[in-house]
């Protein structure tokens, strides 16, 4: 089988990055400081400075960031219902459930891939205690401050799922600073990666302390086995922090490259029938995904196959199926109608976009997409 000419994602480590990481890992191995050391502390300080948050707390995964953040804002009562976008990733719904809460899905707006005050108002119940907003594909909905105000007026907590939004800003504010807390992921496919890892951002001193408690087995003191809360082992290792720090130093560079490629896609898609890019109304955006809505008449499965045959491998959608269709949530999440989210899940693709791509790669994708759509129109 011929290897694709353009792949959907590729982590970006320069020779200098690799040497820096290896030197840091060597120090950790030689000193024996593999956890809760200088690398994690530095990564936290640098992430807080980059986002403008007062605190950044490193954890083992993006899912752990969500669980710890939600537990910190919601408490340990195990009571309450969380509104979650119907078109998100598994972890957005699993995290509240793992934190002992219930989930109700909210529909979204087609232009932002996110809920609005109107869709939340149509979903909220007397049992609702909080809202989890996802910045899908790195898009911060322009309604984010209105959503925060809507939550505040009703006494609901508000947390941001920022797994896609490293570097995304709206009106000068970074993702993860609009709500009580933001939860980031540094998985291998993300805009920046630590291989595995996550981070919780917040301006609330007490909330940050609770996140640190929950990530470290409920221990107020890092190394003393004295447990005051039902926490978990969600710590980030020194080795992962060393990787993440090199990536964070290059995030501004990465954002510029992703913006350039995204603008090339946007210009090239203007004349193509049957497709519509879903574009952020803010800058900078992370462009974690370049989302293209398809006309319902376009067969996505066939389109993906034609692109693959032309050497273009598409990545995963965001997301292929709504949360309500995931088998694990059958019986755990109440049924409801989410027509916009359902349509978005069924009728979009994500074009390859990463910092190892050049303009010629973007043109290859556009040419292959144009040919694939022409072939579809002829049938």
Describe the structure.
This is DegT/DnrJ/EryC1/StrS family aminotransferase. Its cofactor is pyridoxal 5'-phosphate. The protein is α/β, with parallel strands linked by helices and 379 residues long. The protein has two domains: 15-249, Aspartate Aminotransferase, domain 2 (3-Layer(aba) Sandwich); 251-378, Aspartate Aminotransferase, domain 1, CATH 3.90.1150. The protein is 39% helix and 14% strand. The chain has helices spanning 15-31, 38-51, 62-74, 90-98, 117-121, 144-154, 205-215, 238-249, 251-269, 300-309, 339-346, 359-378; strands spanning 55-59, 81-85, 102-106, 128-134, 157-161, 169-170, 173-174, 181-185, 198-202, 275-277, 290-294, 348-351. A seven-stranded mixed β-sheet has the order 1-9-8-5-4-2-3, sandwiched between helices. Strand 2, helix 4 (90-98) and strand 3 (102-106) form a beta-alpha-beta unit. The longest helix has 20 residues, at 359-378. It is globular, with a radius of gyration of 21 Å.
Number of helices: 12
Share of β-strand residues: 5-15%
CATH uppermost class of the largest domain? Alpha Beta
- Overall structural class, as computed from helix and strand content, comes to alpha/beta
Percent of residues in helices: 25-40%
State the total count of DSSP E strands: 12
- What about the largest sheet? 7 strands, mixed
Keywords: Aminotransferase, Pyridoxal phosphate, Transferase
InterPro entries: DegT/StrS_aminotransferase, PyrdxlP-dep_Trfase, PyrdxlP-dep_Trfase_major, PyrdxlP-dep_Trfase_small
Cofactor: pyridoxal 5'-phosphate
Protein name: DegT/DnrJ/EryC1/StrS family aminotransferase
């Amino acid at each position: 089988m011929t290897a694709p000419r353009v792949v959907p994602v590729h982590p970006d480590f320069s020779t200098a990055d690799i040497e820096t990481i290896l030197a840091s890992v060597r120090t950790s191995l030689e000193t024996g400081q593999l956890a809760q050391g200088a690398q994690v502390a530095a990564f936290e300080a640098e992430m807080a400075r980059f986002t403008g948050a007062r605190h950044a707390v490193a954890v083992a995964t993006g899912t752990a960031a969500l669980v710890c953040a939600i537990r910190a804002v919601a408490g340990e009562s195990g009571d309450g219902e969380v509104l979650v976008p119907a078109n998100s990733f598994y972890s957005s719904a699993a995290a509240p459930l793992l934190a002992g809460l219930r989930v109700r899905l909210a529909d979204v707006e087609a232009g932002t891939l996110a809920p609005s005050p109107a869709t939340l108002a149509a979903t909220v119940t007397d049992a609702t205690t909080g809202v989890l907003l996802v910045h899908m594909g790195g898009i911060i909905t322009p309604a984010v401050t209105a959503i925060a105000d809507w939550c505040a007026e009703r006494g609901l907590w508000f947390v941001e799922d920022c797994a896609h939004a490293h570097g995304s800003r709206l009106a000068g504010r970074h993702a993860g600073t609009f709500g009580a807390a933001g939860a980031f992921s540094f998985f291998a496919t993300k805009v920046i990666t630590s291989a595995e890892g996550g981070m919780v951002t917040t301006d609330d001193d007490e909330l940050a302390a609770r996140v640190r408690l929950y990530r470290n087995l409920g221990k107020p003191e890092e190394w003393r086995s004295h447990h005051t809360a039902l926490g978990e082992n969600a710590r980030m290792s020194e080795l992962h922090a060393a990787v993440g720090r090199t990536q964070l130093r290059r995030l501004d560079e990465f954002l510029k490259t992703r913006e350039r490629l995204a603008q090339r896609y946007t210009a090239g898609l203007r004349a193509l029938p049957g497709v519509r890019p879903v574009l952020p109304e803010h800058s900078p955006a992370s462009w974690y995904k370049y989302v293209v809505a398809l006309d319902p008449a376009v067969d996505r499965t066939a389109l993906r196959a034609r692109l693959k045959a032309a050497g273009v491998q598409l990545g995963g959608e965001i997301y292929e199926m709504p949360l309500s269709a995931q088998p694990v949530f059958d019986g755990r999440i109440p049924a409801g109608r989410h027509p916009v989210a359902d349509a978005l899940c069924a009728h979009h693709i994500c074009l390859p976009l990463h910092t190892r791509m050049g303009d010629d790669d973007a043109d290859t994708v556009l040419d292959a997409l144009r040919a694939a759509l022409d072939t579809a129109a002829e049938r």
